Amino acid sequence: MLIIYVVSYLLLTFFGNVNSSGVVSHDLHYPILARYLRIIPVAWNPQGTIGLRVGLYGCYYDSEIVYFDGDDAISYQFRSKKVRSTEDIIGFNFKTMEHEGILMYAAGSQGDYISVELQQAQLVLSISLGNSSLNMSGGETTMKLGSLLDDQHWHQFRLDRYRKYVNFSLDGEILQFRLNGEFEQLDLDTEIFFGGVRNYEKQRLVYRPNFRGCMENIAYNLVYITNLVRRRHPSIRVEVRINIDWV
Ligand SMILES: *[C@@H]1O[C@H](CO)[C@@H](O)[C@H](O)[C@H]1NC(C)=O
Ligand SMILES: *[C@@H]1O[C@H](CO)[C@@H](O)[C@H](O)[C@H]1NC(C)=O
Ligand SMILES: *[C@@H]1O[C@H](CO)[C@@H](O)[C@H](O)[C@H]1NC(C)=O
Ligand SMILES: [Ca+2]
Fold first, then answer.
1. Whose CA is nearest to atom 9 of ligand 1?
2. Which of 3, 63, 97, 229 is deepest in the core (most CB within 10 A)?
3. Burial class (CB in 10 A: 0-12, 13-18, 19+), 227
4. Which ligand 2 atom lies nearest to the CA of residue 162?
5. Which of 2, 132, 135, 179 gets mutated to test ligand 3 (max ligand atoms within 8 A of its CB)?
6. What gap in Å lies between CA 211 and CA 157, rounded to an integer?
7. Where in or outside the cell is it found (predicted)?
8. Dist CA 137 CA 58 (whole Å)
9. Of all protein residues, whose CA lies closest to atom 3 belonging to ligand 2?
């Protein structure tokens, strides 16, 4: 059974103070990158007096960007040959004019994999925590978010997984669901790719183009990939695609 909750697109209601001098503050769970912000008072305080004073505080925004030209990809080599996770937190921002492209991909030998792709300008997340021994099909789950993402604006992707429970979010819109299959751990081999994959023939993906555009602040389970790329860290490999004829 798949349970989906959709949280409507960032329309937030905050309570203010009820006296004349108190200050009430709220933290936003998702950062806002915006030019305009609309504040709509929905109720005045119990005494009925009218007054509104709002302060917005930003924080230092550290931006590290990797540009992909459609022919290359990067891979982050895990410290051990295999990694197994019960929990994952993955996030990055992306900007492109293309409507297809692989943003992230990793797989393991037990049929586990995770991929984030653009397909017809929608963001498509697929996860399998392992092939089922009961079902002939792999235990995969695929979800889509957004539309018209080839608009050359920044979009924010975030994934939180705890066992089979996933929160998949794009620009603050969240899909909550439970993964199919019998397993609870993501088992991956040696590396994770961003912007494309190396050996198409080895991967389960049918041919899909590499990503062309920018990715910003890639964080994979507290590993800051874009920072490692900028520092030319040895755990990062830059893959240049060799041309293969596709018939
Ligand atoms: C997992 O299942 C999928 C779909 O049936 C299949 O294509 C793939 O080869 C399987 N992988 C492994 C490692 O058994
Ligand atoms: C998903 O979001 C809900 C509501 O914010 C939270 O209670 C839950 O713990 C989150 N799940 C994961 C896997 O992060
Ligand atoms: C096996 O697949 C069927 C149909 O797709 C599904 O209803 C069932 O829950 C699956 N069983 C397991 C253990 O995943
Ligand atoms: Ca697994």
1. 111
2. 229
3. middle
4. 13
5. 135
6. 15
7. Membrane
8. 47
9. 167
